[in-house]
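Hi C.,

You asked whether I'd gotten around to modeling the 162-residue construct. I have! Everything is below, sequence then structure, no commentary in between.
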Amino acid sequence: MISALALVLAVLSARADDVADLLPSAIAGALSPTVGTDRSVAAGQGDGPSVDLLVGFEGDTHRLTIAGMKTLRTLAAALLDPSLDGMRFDIVGHAFLPNKPAAAQPLSARRAQAVAEHLTGFYDLDPSRFVTVTGAGASSTRSTNPADPMNQRIEIIRAGAN
């Protein structure tokens, strides 16, 4: 059996343009209530487990790329998994713009909002499943390397049950 940590590592290593390796079951397994509050799953801002996704956006904007939309299709399938029935989530955008630090927080918030709108608009997910949709800006970078794509991520955090 694949451990929850291995599932998350598969999710974390997925690139936005390589969605074939990103499986809804891996995301659902990482966010599943059976994971409990095991913080080894992924570091998140909320109390529950989280996954980091590389969602493609056009440059320094909140407009989704085709690859980004494919990643969100996979996320939507995961959120519709029966193991996540009744679960609610936080969506946190992260952006690191070393040449425009003041723009990072508003951009990350717009990206998180774009993700929530895409999930509710295209996949008919109930908006009440998303407790918080916010941007963290550059406050939680994963790397000091400005080119690291993990500094430009969308974090999905299990916030609890309805």
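If it helps when you're writing up: Helices lie at 4-13, 24-31, 66-79, 101-123.

Thanks,
B.
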